[in-house]
Amino acid sequence: MKNIVYVAACALLVCTSCVTKKKYMIAENGRLEAVGRGDALKEELVNCKDEADRQTARIADLLRDTTELGRTVRNYQTMLNTNLSEQEKLNSLLQQKMNELGDREKTINELQDMINAQNNKVKALLGSVQDALLGFSSDELSVTQKNGKVYVAMSDKLLFESGSAKVDKRGKEALAKLADVLNKQNDIDVFIEGHTDNKPINTVQFKDNWDLSVIRATSVVRILTKDYGVSSLQIQPSGRGEFMPVASNETADGRSKNRRTEIIMAPKLDKLMQLLQ
């Protein structure tokens, strides 16, 4: 009986010892796993901190880049606004110049039209004068056109006796025919110019060739205006003396050509001058 009890006690002790050691091992293993997990967690935390530092540095770099990019964008915007402003100024200036060019072209066209009209008037006037004076010889007078004017050069043989300012009958006939043309052309200016040769003259009536040329011109003007009704407002006399010869004064024939009275007719240029101003 004692032996049985002893055996049972020993068996119970052995069983109790086995259970306690097993629990210990389990607990120890759990502790070691926890320590391992803690070390791993620490390492992970360290890694996370390093990554956070890297991300923070990257964010700082991005902020710097963003700030610089923003500054660059603002500079470009300023430059763009400046360029747009300059472009607007250039466009405005270009438009102004184009308008001025258009006005100039319009003025040029108007001038050209007026010049063409003037040329047509001169041609028509030339034809009328030539037709009116058809019965006179080339020794008595000549009709020419130059510089937009019609010139009728009447010799002193046609108009005056030598050294005289009195217009004779043949000269009056020529002036009467010319007056018929002038009275139909109230939009032209008429200039009467007296010319002499270089032979000096000194008489009771004429002190010199200036006197002779001026008085001959005014004599023609009086006949045209008083006898034949040409408007005094469109006719103007002047004396040129010996200073605008058309031939040499060394010969009798040349001196004869220089002794002349020129009647110069030109369309009025009032409208043309106004346009040019």
What does this structure look like?
Keywords: Coiled coil, Membrane. One of its GO terms (cellular component) is membrane. This is Chemotaxis protein MotB. Strand 3 (188-195), helix 4 (209-227) and strand 4 form a beta-alpha-beta unit. This protein starts with a helix and ends with a helix. It has helices at 2-132, 156-159, 169-182, 209-227, 252-258, 270-276; strands at residues 141-146, 149-155, 188-195, 235-241, 260-267. It has 277 residues and is α+β, with helices and mostly antiparallel strands. It has a domain at 133-276: OmpA-like domain (60s Ribosomal Protein L30, Chain: A, 2-Layer Sandwich), CATH 3.30.1330.60. The chain has a 5-stranded mixed β-sheet.
Sheet with most strands = 5 strands, mixed
Order of helices and strands: HEEHHEHEHEH
Strand content: 5-15%
CATH topology of the domain at 133-276: 60s Ribosomal Protein L30, Chain: A
Within the largest sheet, what's the order of strands? 1-2-5-3-4
Characterize the overall form. Answer: rod-shaped
